[in-house]
Every structure is written in structure tokens, then in C-alpha cells.
Amino acid sequence: MTNVYDFLKYQPDIYRQFACKDLLFAYYDCPQSQHRDDIFSHHSYLSFVVSGSKRIYRQGKSWTFAKGSLEFVKKGGFIQEVYLDEGFRALTCYIPDTYLQQLIRSFRQFYRGKPITNQPTEPIIELAVNETTTGFVQTLLNYFEQEIEPTGEVLEERFRELLFTLLINPDNYALVTYLNSLTDRPRISLYEVLEANYMYHLSLNEYAQIANRSLASFKREFRSLFNTTPAQWLIQKRLDYALILLRTTEKSIGDIVFDSGFENGSHFSRVFKDKFGLSPQHYRKQRIGPTERTLTA
Fold first, then answer.
1. CATH number of 2-184
2. Domain limits of the chain?
3. Average pLDDT, 10 consecutive residues per value, the chain (297 residues)
């Protein structure tokens, strides 16, 4: 899968960007050359849509990013659809967990009431904006459009102001909840990372990146948590998910392969038949007959 953060960061001559401490601001036209693709980021990010639209699929749900919208996207994998004849331009800021945690700790003195934590939030949080928020976004856009490179101190201050205006907006309760939970945990849960991303064809190193762990630490903790290997666990989870899609949707086998994270169709067919004794196509044809009752008994 393509790490969109690395893709942008390491091509500064093509994609306009500013870097400040651990923050990366990018103003770019989406380079995606096919309608549908799977990508990931090991940093969460804020995305403001300047023009065009796209659709993001994560964990069985979908979100539309349209002109003028602002979203907070949690790190991890997702499927992205763009309209190639329309184009898509965005201002995006990638933010490491450690930076967010430090920032929230410094902001909490301004919060009213007890911080809300440990409540589930969606992987993509659609944010409410007002004139103040829009003003800060426009300031950042002006830096790019006028080719004025701000100092790191100015850039960070503008970002802090933008985030603060979002946090004090009562309509952005979900963002406050998530950032408080992130800040109060010493490290992200490996179980949560895997449950949210098993359906994407990520390498073990990429899973470790998302979980903020070294590859060795990831493997060691995985074995302790699941008492099996990552490869075995991922195949089982992907098979379970593919089985649900075969039973409950009319998606093509090719789409199910893509959506459930298998490397290719032949690999999927082989492990599916090894597990259930039927090819995916044969299983689907008989899913309402006695074969399904035998498989699910």
C-alpha cells in the first residue's frame, strides 16, 4: 500500500509543502491515477478540501470529502475513490500522536469541565467550522498560493490557533473525545490498530509504524496478545471478513479480494478453499443451500 505521508514528504519538488518540527503541511492536487486505490498514513491528519470531492471507505463505512469540508482522519488504512475527470485539491496537515498529546496537555487548562475519554469515535471525524476556523485555514492557504514561506514559529502558531478553534467549538465533541483519549493513554493499543486495519494489505512493518512500535516490539507483543503469528491471524480475520461480504453483498470476487486485504485473487481462492472446502464462487452459488448450513454449523 502507498503511505501517502511518505509519498508527499519525499517529493517536495512536486508537492508543495511546509515542514515545522513534526508537522507536515501539504497543498496538492491528488495524484491518484485510478478511480479506486488503497492507501494509508502512519500519522493522523486534518484535511481541508479546496476543490473537487472524493470518497473514503474505512471499516465498512464511507465518508464524502467535498469542497469546503474539514475532516480529521485517524491514522491507518483506507480505500479512496476519486473522480478523475473532476480532480481533487486539498490542504492537509499530518500530525504525529506525540505532538497531539503534548498539545492537548497544554490546552487542557482552557477546557471547561472534566475531559471526556474512553468513548468510541469514528475513524474519520467530520468537523464543524466557523468564520474563525475558516480564517485560519485561509491564512495557511495564502502561504502556499502567494509562495510565501513562513518561519517554523509562525507556522506552528497558526496550526495551534486552528486546532484550538476546533476544540472549543461544542459541535466538535467527537474530536475532543478522541484527542483526550489519545493523550491519556501511554501508548496506542495494538489490538485496536489491528482490528481497525486487518482488511488492508499492509506489511508487518507498516502495521508497526501505525502502532508506534519497532518491528521487533510489534512481533513480540503480537505473540503475547494473540498466541499466534501475524500471518495466521491476518489470514483468518480476512477470511472471516470476506465470508461476510460473500454472504451479505453482491460485490464481485475481485472487489471482495481488494476490500478484505488479500494480495491477489489466486491467493484468496487458495486459502478460502483450504479453509471451507469450496472456491469463493462455488460457495456464493450455494450460500443459501445446505452447503452454507454445513459450513456455519
1. 2.60.120.810
2. 2-184, 190-226, 230-296
3. 94 93 92 88 96 91 95 95 88 96 85 58 93 92 88 93 91 92 87 94 95 95 94 95 91 91 91 92 74 43
CA 146, 151, 155, 161 dihedral sign is negative
The pLDDT, as a whole number, for residue 112 is 53
CATH superfamily of 230-296: Homeodomain-like (1.10.10.60)
Quick check: do 2-184 and 230-296 share a fold? no
Burial 201-240 (b: 16+ CB within 10 A, else e): bbeeebbbbbbbbeeeebbeebeeeeeeebeebbbebbbe
